[in-house]
Amino acid sequence: MANRIKVTFQPENRVVEAGPGETLLDVAALAGIYINSLCGGQGVCGKCRLKVLSGEVEFSSRGIGFLDRKEVDEGYVLACQSTLKDRDVEVWIPPESRREEEQILMVDNIVQYGAPSSQEAGAAPVPVPYYEPLCHKVFLKLPEPTLKDNLSDLERIYRALAQKFPDVKWEADFACLRNLARLLRDNHWEVTALVHALDSHCHHVRSLEPGDTTRNAYGVAVDVGTTTIVAQLVDLKSSQVVGVEASHNQQARYGEDVISRMIYACGHGGLDPLKNAVVTTINTLVNSLVAGAGIQHTDIISFVAAGNTTMTHLLLGLEPCTIRLEPYIPTATRIPWARAAEVGLTGHPDALLHCMPCVSSYVGGDITAGVLACGMNDSPQLSALIDIGTNGEIVVGNNEWLVCCSASAGPAFEGGGTKCGMRATKGAVQKVRIRGDRLEIQTIGGGKARGICGSGLIDCMAELVAEGIIDQSGKFVRLDHPRVREVDGVPEFVLAKETESETGEPVVITEDDIGNLMKSKAAVLAAMKVLLESLGLRFSDLDRLYVAGGFGAHLDIEKSIRIGLLPDVPREKVLFIGNSSLGGARQALLSTHAYRKANAIARQMTYFELSVHPGFMDEFVAALFLPHTDQSLFPSVQEALKNRQREEALLK
Amino acid sequence: MANRIKVTFQPENRVVEAGPGETLLDVAALAGIYINSLCGGQGVCGKCRLKVLSGEVEFSSRGIGFLDRKEVDEGYVLACQSTLKDRDVEVWIPPESRREEEQILMVDNIVQYGAPSSQEAGAAPVPVPYYEPLCHKVFLKLPEPTLKDNLSDLERIYRALAQKFPDVKWEADFACLRNLARLLRDNHWEVTALVHALDSHCHHVRSLEPGDTTRNAYGVAVDVGTTTIVAQLVDLKSSQVVGVEASHNQQARYGEDVISRMIYACGHGGLDPLKNAVVTTINTLVNSLVAGAGIQHTDIISFVAAGNTTMTHLLLGLEPCTIRLEPYIPTATRIPWARAAEVGLTGHPDALLHCMPCVSSYVGGDITAGVLACGMNDSPQLSALIDIGTNGEIVVGNNEWLVCCSASAGPAFEGGGTKCGMRATKGAVQKVRIRGDRLEIQTIGGGKARGICGSGLIDCMAELVAEGIIDQSGKFVRLDHPRVREVDGVPEFVLAKETESETGEPVVITEDDIGNLMKSKAAVLAAMKVLLESLGLRFSDLDRLYVAGGFGAHLDIEKSIRIGLLPDVPREKVLFIGNSSLGGARQALLSTHAYRKANAIARQMTYFELSVHPGFMDEFVAALFLPHTDQSLFPSVQEALKNRQREEALLK
Ligand code: FES
Ligand code: FES
């Protein structure tokens, strides 16, 4: 290989190799890291600022006007105007240079599947090739037939495929035959097969196109959330993420929550508006992804969607009515593949849609995707997965069994149900630090505050109780704090005053907000405790705790434990994996094996019905305390609290 | 089982079991034997006459007026007015009670696959269930879901299917999900699955319909001949043939032979007219079958078509152009299944079309069907199959290898290229007997002669040479015979004079006709001889000789050998299997295993190119003699001839 340069991106600590002369903007895109580049890399928007931490790049004079003296001295450059020289470089991407969408989203710390070449190294314990996208493209350069080599056109294609993929049984759609004779002869016997890997042993040619189009093979992984829909564009050739977009689910106009949408769909409104709304939302995201990556819609040959059971049904145009009524039966849990065009998604005319399998009416494809993403089903260790959203979904198990339950957490963690709550998007307070009278807040995007997102609320609550501004029952006790005030008799903490906020309205957290948040976190913890106890287990038996959710880039694990949202387990056992629904969908996109594993997970997982469990309500009530009524469950939190109180007593 | 009565139908010697009270007409239909029943069994047309040979039936007085005294004494009854009593019966069906179509057709002596129940008896050596139609219906009575048994609708269907078919992996088309929730709940959880058996281990549900429709599951096997198209309606539940129809291929208007149709399709005419013509022909036959059986089009869930490579391409709307030009490449040989509706065939909207696999441009699905039908690929014995039509196709081999070749035989055997030639339909002379001045002819349908069909020509030629009316080179030598006359200097033999024929025109066989027939039979025998010799084999090495062709019900094996169309092998080794293309298609219709076997046959068979073989022309010339220039090749014919001459010398 020619002179390869290592480029390390911070804070992700992601390393990619590149060649001299490539721009940092391009190298970042290659690494799946998105840098704001409004002008498309022309050096005229100044949005793509990076800081060079070590090494050296060639920085063209073109962008210099966007940086001041001090910034230049600190090592800031514009990514699009900086080309690699011949030395390794380490750069840091400041928050303001992130694309806005990236911030709200949906980072997932899921292991990436390497492209085939990168797999060859280590000894794979998996019996089937791991990297084998559900749909991919194979270029075929066929030998021209002769009197001696007179296989039919289709058999010639099968033979070429079998040479590339021995041990695979090849089939073709009937439609492949139409005009095949001309296609081959008009294109010098060079065609690209769109291949659907039904499983590792049987692949299906869905269509054929002229020449070599294997460079244009993209897939879209979609997290079909009730509130937010996130779509990731994946280059199926390199297995790299090349774009991500998110937006509100347009279904919201027919009801905020799943239940009201089901009522709409099964009432006069009908199914169509809901189906169309989610399809339109996804198509809009796809449009942005296509424009952002500079590709064509027809380059997208594969979609994988992960959503809860109702969202999956609505996307597919299946009536969700029986999901809602006893005995709560979905039309399907493991979903047959569909043609994306048939469902209404815009991509290649022969693109396919696979849905992540659901377990039951209550446990959807988002959860099987989550299990797949964290890999708990592959490990003998006892793991738990908590996916925190409107529903707190919890899975406990290992490679032999999986049990899951679902607790209604309310909308607080997704920015609903609180006075200034908002989604984890630009302007949302995501980090809060209170030290005495001093307050520091950090917003997504770094600008003025517009509201508070889920992780901000958790941070804030943890700080308020640590500082003794609220007590362990969530009541305000330091009404004298300069940031505390009362409005209509309800105390509230002011994170940003009218003058400090983006909107001119104050950004606050009220005692009622804290009450709602308390219920949300109590529901999650109680659910987990009851589920574990029903299995004869305790928090301390867990070897691993995976936390997932659309909290933006970060969830502060320490603070989540301090408020009692997460159990008090050794911190090294806890791993925040971000949007695991999206991560699992992407895994399936890139690996038929993973998709089949998800189907096995769905069959294997048993559902534990929390609502009928007699102990749940008691546990819920006991958890309505910060961190918990039973202090012995949170020994490390108790310890820290005592230390703090000791410290304060000393200071006084 | 209740009191079962055996009914034997002659001349087929087919035995069926039935119960007291059933009419002979119904029982015959059950046996796949078609009896003319113009009035539909009302007893008012008198067409359904049968003769009771032994046993006794209850004959209602209703039909008595159609029979005269003598007939009643001889045991004639009307089938529709005769009900079984409690004794076994043997009946004979006179030719005039056959449906007209049945006479021209296409009898095939192929072993019938029994319905599942009849399989259970003997120890099957086949590792997979033999009776397992490519498409069939399965009725499912699902348990209503409860809180405890809360599988999704689709999983509930999978579970019920798995209970009926363990060891099968079940999948469903995405389209099955649409309205599935309503379908199940509106129909008391009773539905019928239309199942596509991809192979013995993987079945696909193509669609679901309300209630139990398993009674209405029919398939159509089609022999897509260049000249004649034959379609058979098969009850997939009982595996019985319940109807057969045939007609000219409407493509004939675009050219009589395959080559001229290819030229039309690839020239200005285009593919569409040819595709539409064959589809229309089949649909017309299907209409008759549907009307005849009193079923609905939507009861037809499966089509299997067998045709030569060009006919297969035209049916599927694939350009045949590359088949015709060097290096003679078809678009496909093994054909992916298609939706019948997509191809234009009328049946159930989800009916499928499977085509019998082709080997090459020259060896089509009709031949793989033939091999499948006679089963030569399953036997260690050395077998040959000769399919006599416009092309004489010959396959030689056993369970380890198969080699085939194709010789252009010309249209004589199909009724073309001779002065009074006609298809094997009503009025065709099919049997000829000449003894001195005496002439006996037998026509199909028993009426006056209209022309001569292939088997009639063979019969006639054999009689003429045996009687010494023509010599062994095919020249007329007995110009003094009362039935011989000369027209424009060409001698001809008169089978029916103007006054004896149906048309008022004489039915004759001319010296030129005999010359054409000679070329046809010479091509077939020479091809077979060259093929065998290229394999180091001789006629005497054959353990079995299967003869197939659309000759109507009978081909006289003895006479075929006497003229040298078939080699002079021990008669017990020769089996006439009729329309083996149709028979093989029906086997596939009834057995996924058989269809897969056909695909294996197509892959396994090698093609021997006769036209480039230097010895072929010499062999062809040597075979232009009755039976052959090399008399030692036909010892039994020589022997018979000598005996005959001795006898005659004695008589003189
Ligand atoms: S992308 Fe516009 S300045 Fe770099
Ligand atoms: S069918 Fe008409 S009389 Fe028997």
TrEMBL record, chains A, B:
One of its GO terms (molecular function) is iron-sulfur cluster binding. Residues 5-97 form the 2Fe-2S ferredoxin-type domain. CDD domains: fer2. Coiled coil: none annotated. Signal peptide: none annotated. It comes from the Bacteria. PANTHER family: IRON-SULFUR CLUSTER PROTEIN (PTHR42895:SF2), IRON-SULFUR CLUSTER-BINDING PROTEIN-RELATED (PTHR42895). This is Uncharacterized 2Fe-2 and 4Fe-4S clusters-containing protein, contains DUF4445 domain. It comes from Desulfacinum infernum DSM 9756.
